[in-house]
Write a structure and sequence with these properties.
Elements lengths: L1 H8 L5 H10 L6 H20 L5 H10 L28 H13 L3 H16 L10 E3 L2 E5 L12 E6 L5 H20 L4 H15 L11 H14 L4 H8 L6 H5 L16 E2 L2 H4 L6 H9 L5 H9 L5
Antiparallel strand pairs: 1-2, 2-3, 3-4
Helix pairs in contact: 2-3, 3-4, 5-6, 6-7, 6-8, 6-9
Length: 313
């Protein structure tokens, strides 16, 4: 707990700093989230008391600080009614993305043209919404700045994606136009990628208002469905992790779309090239390491063969 806050601030912190940080964030946390964090902090305080680090007087002061002066009235007051990432669909049909792209292009405004391009090419690029902002195309290679590169969960600050023959020359030109629009918008907002993501996400929500089949489709849905498509196309867990920027080969399977929900495509269609440098930084997940240590099969096929016994001659 203290380590997480210390890494965020770049300097050592104590339990008192954690308490003050939670108080400062109380308005932006839902009440359920606030009390979950509060319970975790209280348990940490008990542990420190058992270790002799805190005395009873120190505990009383810290516990008192965990409740705002006005009771619970200020907790969650700045939480938006609609959380943009909540209920985001992981599996979306290709025709749904295509229809939303068409609806967006039809509005003929800059923001909706960008949203339309994200709906059209997002499932093939498999990037986070913010990562496309500031991206650079060199030939058939797309260079993006990773959104998560300082928490030890990514494969590097810069990630290179090779766009293979599945992207036609027309598609490449469209992607270049999208990147140009995104860079121009980024300059206008002073380099704040989060602000642009909120703008485009709000435009998408307005676009799908009253459209029942589009409920839950967000910018994040393109990445989730993109993972399912890669798995269906035959990419390994390590290859998918290197493309998506995950340091663990197990992250995508537990957080994004399932292989069974990937779109059917032509035989051996592999839209993205693998960066050997990123692939070399992907590590096995904790579950895989545990199975290897216990000598257990790693895949369903291995498990099935192990229990099926020898095949009849």
């Amino acid at each position: 707990m203290e380590r997480t806050l210390a890494r965020k601030r770049g300097s050592p912190v104590g339990i008192a700093d954690v308490v003050e940080d939670l108080r400062a964030r109380a308005k932006s946390l839902a009440k359920a989230s606030y009390y979950l964090y509060r319970a975790t902090v209280l348990q940490r305080i008990r542990d420190l008391f058992a270790e002799g680090v805190l005395d009873e007087e120190g505990i009383q002061k810290l516990v008192a600080r965990l409740t705002p002066e006005d009771g619970t009235a200020s907790i969650g007051t700045c939480v938006p009614e609609k959380r943009t990432s909540a209920q985001s669909r992981k599996h979306v049909r290709a025709v749904s993305f295509s229809t939303l792209a068409f609806m967006s292009y039809a509005k003929k405004t800059r923001t909706y043209v960008i949203v339309g391009a994200m709906m059209e090419y997002g499932p093939d690029l498999v990037t986070r919404p913010c990562e496309l902002i500031g991206g650079i195309m060199t030939g058939r290679w797309l260079s993006i700045r990773a959104a998560k590169c300082t928490n030890g969960r990514g494969v590097g600050e810069i990630r290179n994606l090779g766009l293979k023959d599945a992207f036609t020359d027309f598609d490449l030109e469209e992607v270049r136009d999208l990147l140009t629009l995104l860079r121009e918008d980024l300059q206008k907002v002073g380099g704040d990628r989060s602000k642009l993501v909120r703008r485009y996400g709000a435009a998408l929500r307005r676009l799908r208002q009253g459209v029942s089949w589009a409920k839950g489709i967000t910018l994040k849905s393109t990445r989730a469905q993109g993972r399912a498509n890669l798995a269906r196309a035959g990419y390994t867990a390590f290859e998918i992790a290197s493309i998506m920027g995950h340091a663990s080969a197990e992250t995508s399977a537990s957080h994004y779309g399932r292989k069974s929900q990937g779109w059917k495509s032509s035989h051996n269609r592999r839209p993205l090239a693998i960066s050997e440098r990123a692939l070399g930084r992907v590590r096995p997940g904790a579950r895989t390491k545990a199975k290897i240590a216990r000598g257990q099969p790693l895949t369903f096929s291995e498990a099935r063969d192990a229990f099926a016994g020898p095949k009849p001659a």
